[in-house]
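Hi, does anyone understand the following?
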Amino acid sequence: MNLPVPRTIAVNGVIVDFAGGFVRDRAGREIPLRPQAFSLLKYLLQNADRLVTKDELMKAVWPGVFVTDDSLVQCVRDVRRAIGDADQSVLKAVPKRGYRFTIPAVVTPSARAAKTGWKMGAVAASVLALIAFGLAWSFARPPAALRSLDGPPVVAVVPFTSVGGDEAAQKLALKMNHGFPTKLAELREFQIALRGSAFAFGANPGEMLDVDLVLGGSIDREGDNLRITAHLIDPRTGGVLWSEQWDRRDDDISAIKHEVSERISNRLGGSGGLILETARTAARLKAPDRLTAYELYLLGTAKLARINRADAEEAIDLLGRSAERDPGLVRTWVELSLAHGLMADLGVEPERNRMAAADAAERAVSLEPTDPKAHAVLGISLRYRGEIARTRSELDTALAMTPDAFDILALYAGWASSFGEAQRGAEMADRAVRLVPDFPDWSAKQFSNAYFMVGRYEDAVGMLDRLSPDNATLSTRATRAAALAALSQDKGSQEVGRSAFR
């Protein structure tokens, strides 16, 4: 069976990036692998845990081309080297027949001092407990400390289960299980664990995976509605970190799937999502001299989110130390760009900080051309250079990669008016707020500008009212003053005011 695969897969200590077409370690460093060898690896992963004959592999990797067994053997060697399979425990040869790709466990590329396993049976019990208690509200408890992290947490996704045999519930569960994991895999804040066919079709009780968190869900009938429940579980204790429910009529299964997928993705992913908040909580508990590059990045982003000079300076220090320890950590450069941009907007050495922001953004895109947030911050830095066409191009690239991601929508909304898309920017702001009603403070600055540029002055001021006085920047002061003045001006004067911000 040829299984659907997500954008990235953690396998045997490395990350296989299907979209990028390469294998990399956790720090983002590429492991050299020839195109044919990568095609072989991809095909074997799609057909994990079954015997794949030599003829089948040759047809898949070299379609319409005659090759000898030596070519196949060399590719197998290359794959084993890339994934660290010296003992051939993952890619196993079946004498005179072919190969079987067996994934005994999903292990992240970090060298972890201790491994935490979890059993699918325990997760199933948690699912049943949620259903039994009939939770009708969202709840969370303080997240448990994770293990030392050298990169994004690994999340195992348990397929949504249909409860009670309802036909519509079964259809929705099927759609969720075939599309939702792929959507999650687009996010960069965490990695998706795959174990053979478990990712798409469920795992067997007792199987062990090395993961940080477990995401699962159930769907059942509640009167005229389908009730969709999602939950995030601590794999060590079986405790529920977060759960939320949605009751929706079953007249459009595809629309329900799209909405629920969006909401879960944005609740868990993004700079202010639950996954990174859980990881930050763990990082705060560690001794400063034991922090990894990734943990320094996490703490730096927490400081940056406070939007004031003292914390921005500390964010730059933490992120700079992260970059020194691991120059290949892409998101460190992304956040460094935003941090220097904030310092410039606070009036601190604007020219120098704008240059530093641009350099960090360019570094991020060069390290990972498929990272949407890297393209977004590069677009913002280009705006300050007056390169409007490139600004739009970079922001459009980011949006095309993750059209439903809150962070990208918020960043785009704040800058859309600079290339003549003010109305679209306001619509993006509205959409972002619907996706994340308790949106972080940094995004209020973006939304205020988006609303101001379409004449929604009360909305613009309302966004700025969410911020404290020490959050004020050059741009927010100007927006507030102009919006308050515009509320008492005639229409012609308002247009003059908006034009000054374009």
User: Anything to note?
Assistant: The first strand starts at residue 8 and ends at 11. The chain is about 50% helix and 15% strand.
